[in-house]
Structures are given as C-alpha cells and as structure tokens.
Amino acid sequence: MTLEKIREEASDNISRLDNPESIRTPGRTWTRYPEDLEEKASKAENLEPSIESSGDIEIFQGEEAVDKAGNKLFELIRPDENRLNAVHAMYMNSVIYVAASGESELHVKYESDGPVLSHLIVEASDNSSVTVTEETSSEEFNSSFTEIYVGENATVEYGAVENTEGFSYSRRKAITDDYGTINWLNGIFDGELNRTKIESILKGDDSETEMTGVWYPVKEQHHDISLHARHIGDRTRCNMDSRSVVDHRARSLYEGLQKVETGAVDTSSFQDQETLMLSDKAESDASPKLMIEDPNVEASHAAAAGTVEEDKQHYLESRGLPEDKSERLVVKGFFEPVMEEITVPAVKERIREEVQKKLDAKTEEN
C-alpha cells in the first residue's frame, strides 16, 4: 500500500470515528482531547529525523519504508481503531522501517517547531538482539507510533523519552514469536496532555516482556498511561513496574491490563504502579486489571498512591537538610527501584536529567 492510499483511507475514517475512550469514574471523564487536533496535525511538514545506528541493521525511510514494511505497517496498530489513529495515518510526516539481524542499535531523534507524527516499524529477525531508542521534541503536537515484530529467540530493548509542549499521543505495540523478548521503557516529562498506550502480545511460547513507565507531571499537566499485556503462548511472562510523581495541580492517570487467554498455560504476570503526591491539589487515579481465562497462572496486580512519608522527611531534616532538599532526595529515591531495572544506559541518563530538571524548577519556584 502506498502513502497516498493510506492517507486516502484515513481521510474517510477521521469523520466517522470517535476519539479513544478515557477512564471514567463517577461523575468524571478523566481525559478530554483538544478539538483542534486535526487542524494542528494538518500543518505537519516532511520531517527528517536524526538517525544513528550500529551493527547488523537496515534502515528505510518514506515511500521506501512503506514498500519494505508491506503489511506490517499498521498491522498491529490499526488506523481505523479510533479518530486519533486515523489523524496519525493521514498526516504522518516520518515513516521508518528497520530490519535488524545479529546485534544492533538504533537511536532516532525527532525535533521540530511544528507537529511530529512519526511511525517506526521494527522487525527483529530470529536470534537477533536490538536496542531501539526514540526521542521526540516538538512544540505543538506529537503522534508517535511504534510497531515491533520480535522473531524467534530475538530480544528487543526499547526506550522512549517524550518532550512535547502541547498534546502528545503515543501508541507502541509488539508481538513475539517463541522465546522472544520485548522490554519497554517510556519516560514522560512534558506536555499539557499526554496519552500513551503500550502493548505486548506474547504470542510465542516462552516469550516475555517487561514494561517500565516513569512520568512526572507538574503544574497543570495531565499524563494518561496504559500498559497492556496479552498472554497467548504457553509459559509466557510479564512484569509491569511503573512510578509517577505528581505535583502542583497536575493529574496522573494509569490503566494496566494483564489478559491471559484460554490455553495459555504456566503464565506469570505481575503488575505494580506507585504514585507519589507532592501537592494536596494534585490528582491521581489508577485502574490495574486482570482478565484470566486460564486457571493455570500466577498473576497479581497492585497500585498505591501516597504523600512523602513524614518519618523520612523528618529523618533527613534532622540531619540538617532543608525541606526542599530533603524532598528532592525522597523523589529521587522513589524513582530508584525502577531506574535500577533500566538496561538502556542512554535512556536511563536522559530520565535522570529530566527528573533533575523538574526538581531544579521547583527549587527556583521556592
């Protein structure tokens, strides 16, 4: 399918589709989308991202990427699923297809004063190992789609850091073959409204996924994160671990889903989400869920939200640290268990930098 054909079909879908559903609690719909998203997206101009790579990897862009990807483009994430997906398909200004074999690394950086609507397709061949990082910086609108195909006994380590001043919509999805591994890391630190959904389809036997999220909304920012894992193969394993810090009047929304299909035996699936509230005006909601269709499974989920513990604050202040510095240490310590799990050094460093920027900004306010 050509880009022209994709845009033609997307144009027909935009007017008839609804925006993605948001979590609803009594009397409230948490995430409401701007009404002018299509108008903003229509201003997208052709984008040439910065690409660095090493190892056994082939990279294609634009029409050539569409041709090489074939039916793998929009196979995992459908453009007719909702209105925002159709807007992405209509106006995307960067398409990259990557074929990875052996050991390789790929880093893609998108920077623009205007909208960024990027689409990355990664195909990791059997027995390969590839590390992929994406970094996005835009002022108005970001739509980032990532589709990953993990071959037999292949490993994909993926990391993303998103910095968009306005609205950001991210969809990331992978499917595994036997013994395949897909590990996700997503860090979100800016944006008035951010909606991110990450999914792993563990189709192959003995395949596994780790899903790690870190986000830190402040002021009036709203971050909406979903982590989904679908267990289809036997002896599949999933571990979700995410942490958020929320300050000022910001809002943090989390939805996690572990689904175990009928016949997916000896499955292990665990989920944990924790939120640290730094302000009594901040808001947080978490919705962890299990859908178990096979009894031969180990699974659990947990979510917790709380403020800075008084005994920790008192301990640090009793050692001579002022309140603002003691709070900084508590925040860094709160993120540390997740940081220790991150295996992509470049992304770990970027996340530490972004956390530090948030803490420095609060110190300047005080």
Oligomer: single chain
When the domains are counted, the total is 1
Give the overall form: globular
- The value of Rg in angstroms is 20 Å
How big a fraction of the residues is strand? over 45%
For the terminal residues, how far apart are their CA atoms?
55 Å
Estimated helix fraction: 10-25%
Secondary-structure element string: HEEHEHHEEEEEEEEEEEEEEEHHH
Class by alpha and beta content: alpha/beta
Sheet with most strands: 16 strands, mixed
Are there runs of 5+ residues with pLDDT below 50, and where?
A: none
Average pLDDT for all residues: 89
Count, helices: 7
> What's the total number of strands?
18
Description:
With 366 residues, the chain is of the alpha/beta class. It has one domain (3-308). It is built from 7 helices and 18 strands. The chain has helices at 3-14, 37-41, 62-69, 83-91, 310-318, 323-339, 345-365, and strands spanning 24-25, 28-29, 50-61, 94-112, 116-124, 129-138, 141-150, 155-164, 167-176, 181-188, 193-202, 208-215, 222-231, 237-246, 251-260, 267-277, 283-292, 297-307. The protein has a 16-stranded mixed sheet that branches. It has a two-stranded antiparallel sheet with strand order 1-2. Strand 1 (24-25) and strand 2 form a beta hairpin. Helix 6 packs antiparallel against helix 7.
